Amino acid sequence: MAAPADARPQVAPAGPKSGAPRRKGNSAALLLIAPSIVFMTLLFGWPMVSGFLQAFGGPEGLTTANFTRMSQDPYFWSSVGNTLLLIVVMIPIQFVLALAMALLIRAKPRGASAYFYIWAIPLAVSDLAAGLVWLTVFTDRGYLNSLLASVGLQPVAWLAYDNYPSMFGAVLIAEVWRATSLVFVIVVAGLQSIPKDYEEAAGVFGASFWNRLWHVTLPLLRPSLQTALILRTILAFQTFAVALALTGQNFPLVVGETYRWYTGLQDPNVASALALVVMAVSMVTAVGYLKLLRDQSEAPQ
Amino acid sequence: MSHATTSKAAEPAAGHEPEVDRRPLARQRRNRVLLQVACILITLFMALPIYLIALAAMSSRQSLQKFPLSFIPDNFSTETMQTFLQSTGILGGLINSVQVGVFTLVLSLIIGVPAGYAVARFAFRGRDPYQLFLLFTRALPIVVLSVPLAQLFLQTGLYDTVPAVVLLHTALALPTTILITASVFLGVPRDVEEAARIFGCSPLQAFLKVVLPMAVPGIAAASIFTFVMSWNEVLGASILTLNQRTLPAQVLSSLAESPLAYRFAGGFLLVLPALIFIFFMRRYLTNMWGSTIR
Predict the structure, then answer these.
(1) Does the global pTM surpass 0.80?
(2) How many CA atoms does the CB half-sphere of B244 hold within 13 Å?
(3) Most buried one in A66, A118, B7, B180, CB count within 10 A?
(4) Which chain B residues have a beta carbon less than 8 Å from that of A236?
(5) What gap in Å lies between CA A269 and CA B156, rounded to an integer?
(6) Using CB atoms and an 8 Å cut-off, which of residues 200-219 of chain B contact chain A?
(7) Distance from CA of residue A104 to its chain's centroid?
(8) Is B121 within 8 Å of chain A by CB?
């Protein structure tokens, strides 16, 4: 359980100074990592280059026609808008909920391990499966409308194309359900690494719960929260099957559009152009990720 | 809990003094109740949808047509699941999914475990760039790789085969496998390895006989994680295959024209492994995400 956390302080100083003789270590290590480098370069490097060429490729040489076609498609801008709106609304909800869940678990309620298990289950559920799970709830003759009907209320067409707020709400709830577990697990791990003394000390000096949370726990949790934030943002750009399972084409998302251009419209060039857009946005986020990472690993030492 | 019992134990000692302030105790009891209520509400939100899809998948087609739907399992039936399993491409998709998952797991362990060991044990030149390279690849969206890989696989005759999906999934899983196994090996004390060397083991023997057995539980957790990732991945698998689809890819591609009962049964079959995976992984979850993701 505590192995990596305990090992870290021991190993960090052992890294560059002591350890195996340097030359021997170099060649042995390079031998061990070589297969992974070769594999990753072939499977990541080549597709990236060829995807780039494909996105700008046309019948006669390089062209930006694919990007023009992409941006003139009526679904494109609504898919961009939907993706951004989903991220902006979803991430704050996820973080508040995950933080609350982690604090509840830390308070050690009776049956904490059962709660932890159930709350972590969606971590292993795909976005397609999550969409289908919530389809049973939101579909016209589904469980939510059954509940409404049984208390005498009028059923609502939650997923109808002309009912944007409820369609958005359904996708949002399904995504919050699926992806909050990831943030929750990262925050629980972060809380475990914070010594309880700080909070107890603050408690002794009379700080209220909210004061302790705001001035003690949250600042100490910052590294975990940053990690979770950037990971979730990158992953959120890739969401598409939730919306596809719930609403069909009525709530387009950017990656879903790539899928549609490739499989439905059979145009790999425009699909590549869309993929490049997704990559550009993810890379900007990833650069932020690496920057924060560097700050993080330097700060504690 | 411990606070409550200690204050109770203190009571008899102070028993004869008439004015015992019971308000803190009452407040504490109220907080415990509120805590349980909050936990139960969140559990309902997390578990109820899974109960409902299980209920829908285990109902007959007729009872799914009724409205309002019943919330209690009154007419259990395997008809919906059977129809789903017998529809075109589902059984094949299930077999493909398991094959892809197992081969992905094996391939990513073969390539990933040595690399993880190197990251954990050697201070080689280029270790930091290598780790940054791994983190960089983690951030690449699947869709960026799938479309060009599909073109490459079409040219090489690998398109629409299990190995094609295995290659993509291994590429996606490898960074995580390496980072997790590295943190697992960090947890195995260097001393035991050195002791084995002093008693005459070769480096390989020391690794196989001493280090590896201690690392197996953590590596097993990493493998389960790889399998889950492969089981859940749908976009790349749909783009790289046409007839040899994995289960999620098959469900996704027939989504538009399939009846609701088919979708419910498919959703349930996709969720089912999650219950088992998380059950076995729950002790490792915080470790894996807490220490390796950074």
Answers:
(1) yes
(2) 15
(3) B180
(4) none
(5) 19
(6) 218
(7) 22
(8) yes
Flag if B115 and A32 touch (Cβ within 8 Å).
Answer: yes
pLDDT tens track for B130-166: 888 887 777 778 888 888 888 888 888 888 888 889 9
Longest dimension (CA), chain A: 78
- Provide, for chain A, the percentages of residues in helix, strand and coil under a 3-state DSSP scheme, each rounded to the nearest 5: 80, 0, 20
- What is the least distance, in Å, from the CA of A234 to any CA of chain B? 7
Looking at residue B29, its pLDDT comes to 87
Residues of chain B with C-beta less than 8 angstroms from the C-beta of A14: 190
Provide the 3-class DSSP secondary structure of residue A222: helix
What was the ipTM of the complex prediction? 0.82
> What is d(CA B35, CA B24) in angstroms, rounded to the nearest whole number?
16
Token output for A135: 């389809």
Write the DSSP symbol of residue A152.
T
Size (chain B), residues: 294
The three-class DSSP label of residue A252 is coil
Omega of the bond prior to B68 within 30 degrees of 0, cis?
yes
Backbone torsions φ then ψ of A58, nearest 5 degrees? -150, -175
Name the residue among A240, A10, A46, A251 with its Cα closest to residue A138: A251
Report pLDDT digits (tens) over A225-281.
Answer: 887 887 888 888 888 899 999 988 888 998 888 888 888 888 888 888 888 888 888
Whether A293 and chain B come into contact, CB under 8 Å, resolves to yes
